[in-house]
Amino acid sequence: MEQLATLDDLPKHYVASLTQKNLVPLWPSLRNVLPPNQPIPLTQTTVWHFNEIKPLLLEAGELTPIEKAERRVLVLANPGHGLENMKATSSIYLGMQLLLPNEWAPSHRHTPNAIRLIVEGSGAYTTVEGQKCPMEHGDLILTPSGLWHEHGHHGDEPVIWLDILDLPLVYYMEASFVEGGDVQKVIGLDAGHRYAKGIVPTLHFMREKSDFPLLRYAWTDTKQVLDALANDPSYGGAAQISYINPETGHDCQKIIGYSAMRLAPKEVLPLERRSAAQVFHVIQGEIQIDINAQSHQLQKSDTACAPCFAQIDLINNSPEPAYIFVADESPLQKKLGLYSTRSRI
Ligand SMILES: [Fe+2]
Predict the structure, then answer these.
(1) Ligand 1: distance of its center to the CA of 259 in Å?
(2) What angle do CA 262, 268, 273 make, to 5 degrees?
């Protein structure tokens, strides 16, 4: 494509008079906003090791009481976006949150959608719209846009979870805000018990919340399905599941998509190149992840992100199966008609 003129090619007095009138010439920036053939992502491949996060998070527990933090979180920030912007990718926020025994993170609701993936510890819970969801290792809990949620802890050890939000996108749209609320009245069985198996207590079945009928996806159920797929010779594909709304079959949330996969010992899984940035988090086991020809070792509870159209291979060099949680921007891109895949290089 033709090289275009730059700002320096214009007389200074002309540029000054444009600026004074809130005008900007397009052509010096045209190749930046419309790069040829594929995007130029700010998102850099980044890895966060849990054994480096955990001591700093526990130290935060000593430095800052929950009342002064409201949510005690260390944000996993991508240097490509500037750490202060608190983005893992253009649309995805990642935070590692700590709740200590007997602490309570007060009820609130906000416009960004959030999920929690439980990383370590036991005894905490999240109450969403009155439904108390236990937080056990590997569980996925949804706190969608506009739903009241609070976190409590009856146990005796620190609980740490990974927060994933579409905050960067919602903030960019100038649509991000929060409201504080009162302690929620718990209305009985947790969401998983209500809806996970397709049967519901008739008295409490709330059709008006059917956008999010299932709020907790228990890891014990997910792992069981992944193991069954891996051990079924007739299945013949990668052992991967998608977290969906069981009523509609659509993605469980509207902007970020969630899935999980199992890599058998010695399995190598080449992924297709996708227009959506992706986040990988190790629930159990360990893997090597090759992103654009750079190898990274991920242990249990480590997290990595990869930019759009990255060439990615997941490799399990260990004698044990590995279980990986994946978040990506594909639901958003599909709704906007922007999603595509490309063949591997
Ligand atoms: Fe929240």
Answers:
(1) 21
(2) 90
Would you state the structure tokens that stand for residue 42, as one six-digit string?
Answer: 């700010």
Separation of CA 134 and ligand 1 centre (Å) = 16
Q: Is residue 29 domain-resident?
A: no
Please report whether residue 311 resides in a domain.
yes
Q: What is the pLDDT of residues 274-320, one digit of tens each?
A: 999 999 999 999 999 999 999 999 999 999 999 999 999 999 999 99
Q: According to the model, what pLDDT value does residue 248 have?
A: 85
Interval between CA 328 and ligand 1 midpoint (Å)? 20
Q: Is the dihedral of CA 11, 12, 13, 14 positive or negative?
A: positive
Q: What does the pLDDT read at residue 1?
A: 87
- What is the spatial distance between Cα 90 and Cα 257, in angstroms, rounded to a whole number? 14
Q: Domain with 241 in it: what CATH number?
A: 2.60.120.10
154 CA from centroid of ligand 1 (Å): 19
Domain that holds residue 270: 46-342
Q: Is the CA virtual torsion 316, 321, 327, 330 positive or negative?
A: positive
- For residues 249 and 197, the model is more confident at 249
Q: How confident is the model at residue 6 (pLDDT cuts 50, 70, 90)?
A: very high
Angle at 141 between CA 138 and CA 147, to 5 degrees: 170
Domain presence at residue 71: yes
pLDDT exceeds 90 at position 66: yes
- Residue 196 alpha carbon to ligand 1 centre in Å: 23
**Contacting residues for 119 by C-beta, under 8 A, at least 6 apart:** 50, 96, 137, 160, 161, 162, 301
Asked whether residue 4 is domain-assigned, the answer is no
Q: How confident is the model at residue 305, as a pLDDT?
A: 98
Contact status, residue 124 vs residue 159, Cβ threshold 8 Å? yes
